[in-house]
């Protein structure tokens, strides 16, 4: 009499931002995500409560390991989220879940690991030519915050992801309007980071209020999604102006990243904001500002930029992170 082999335990992967937490399972390290679900972070008191809520609706063997991509620096065992109130010990969460292994990495480090896995249909090229094979790749993306990362060649045909917090560099204006916006922001904040003006939770509302003040317009109390919707559909001229300024500022940030890393392998744009208005983004000042570099314009002109349109990209990066151990 034969006995069936017990089902192998899957692994949990997660992509946790300041607004939403995406969960999925993989059947082997580096495998494709399945059973994807999105839960609001504010609907759960702790990260392990959110994980248990996800697992409660999953049948089959319980995961025994996991990888979590999170919108936060990961510098030790204790993680305190910048754009949300969750804080936790990685070891304590691992033990509470009964996992034998739990990896926690920055969400843009995970997204960087996904870049070689993205399909052509998941990328929209904005300017430039063909990427240089084996050259560094840059990654920047406005979501709830502003994530920055990239991939560096390891000299053996593989890649090393960058684990940094480039969204918190000081904002650098490049024209008279942006100087006025910076002045407005400095009256309210001791330090004005790139994230303070180019992100969802902070950037869009700040730009909306700043432009209203500079242009002498009245400003409603609008949420970031409302600004994006009204700007995209043309129902609010001020919101449309916000999106245009936002894209131009992002072009400068992306160009800075390209020259810093020597990212001739391309600069990738992630985050959840720009996929909501891709055509407007492609037609914006983004590309002109990306190349606006004086004597180094010729260096930047061939570098392609790609808008990522793959909701599970960071999850695939988390899966790849498990496979790398």
UniProtKB/TrEMBL annotation:
Its EC number is 2.7.1.2. GO terms for cellular component: cytosol. It is an enzyme of class 2 (transferase). It catalyses: D-glucose + ATP = D-glucose 6-phosphate + ADP + H(+). GO terms for biological process: glycolytic process. The keyword S-adenosyl-L-methionine does not apply. Coiled coil: none annotated. It is found in: Cytoplasm. ATP binds at residues 14-19. Keywords: ATP-binding, Cytoplasm, Glycolysis, Kinase, Nucleotide-binding, Transferase. Signal peptide: none annotated. This is Glucokinase. InterPro entries: ATPase_NBD, Bacterial_glucokinase, Glucokinase. The gene is glk. Gene3D superfamilies: 3.30.420.40, 3.40.367.20. One of its GO terms (molecular function) is D-glucose binding. Belongs to the bacterial glucokinase family. It holds the Pfam family Glucokinase.
């Amino acid at each position: 009499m034969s006995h069936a082999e017990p089902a192998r335990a899957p692994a949990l992967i997660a992509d946790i931002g300041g607004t939403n937490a995406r969960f999925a399972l993989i059947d082997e390290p580096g495998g494709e995500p399945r059973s994807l679900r999105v839960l609001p972070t504010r609907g759960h008191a702790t990260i392990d409560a959110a994980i248990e809520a996800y697992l409660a609706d999953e049948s089959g063997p319980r995961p025994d390991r996991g990888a979590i991509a999170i919108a936060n620096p990961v510098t030790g065992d204790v993680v305190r989220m910048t754009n949300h109130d969750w804080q936790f010990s990685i070891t304590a969460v691992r033990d509470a879940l009964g996992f034998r292994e739990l990896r926690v990495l920055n969400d843009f480090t995970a997204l960087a690991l996904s870049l070689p896995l993205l399909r052509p249909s998941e990328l929209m090229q904005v300017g430039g030519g063909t990427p240089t094979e084996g050259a560094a790749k840059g990654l920047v993306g406005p979501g709830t915050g502003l994530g920055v990362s990239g991939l560096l060649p390891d000299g053996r045909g593989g890649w090393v992801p960058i684990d940094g917090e480039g969204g918190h560099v000081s904002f650098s204006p490049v024209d008279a309007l942006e100087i006025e916006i910076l002045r407005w922001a400095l009256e309210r904040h001791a330090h004005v980071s790139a994230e303070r003006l180019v992100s969802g939770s902070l950037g869009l509302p700040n730009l909306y209020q700043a432009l209203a003040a500079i242009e002498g317009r009245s400003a409603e109390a609008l949420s970031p999604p409302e600004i994006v919707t009204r700007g995209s559909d043309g129902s609010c001229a001020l919101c449309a102006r916000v999106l245009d300024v936002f894209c131009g500022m992002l072009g400068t940030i992306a160009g800075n990243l390209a020259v810093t890393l020597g990212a001739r392998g391309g600069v990738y744009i992630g985050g959840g904001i720009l996929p909501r208005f891709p055509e407007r983004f492609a037609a914006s000042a983004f590309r002109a500002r990306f190349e606006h570099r004086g004597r180094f314009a010729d260096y930047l002109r061939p570098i392609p930029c790609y808008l990522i349109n793959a909701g599970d990209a960071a999850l695939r990066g988390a899966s790849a992170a498990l496979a790398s151990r």
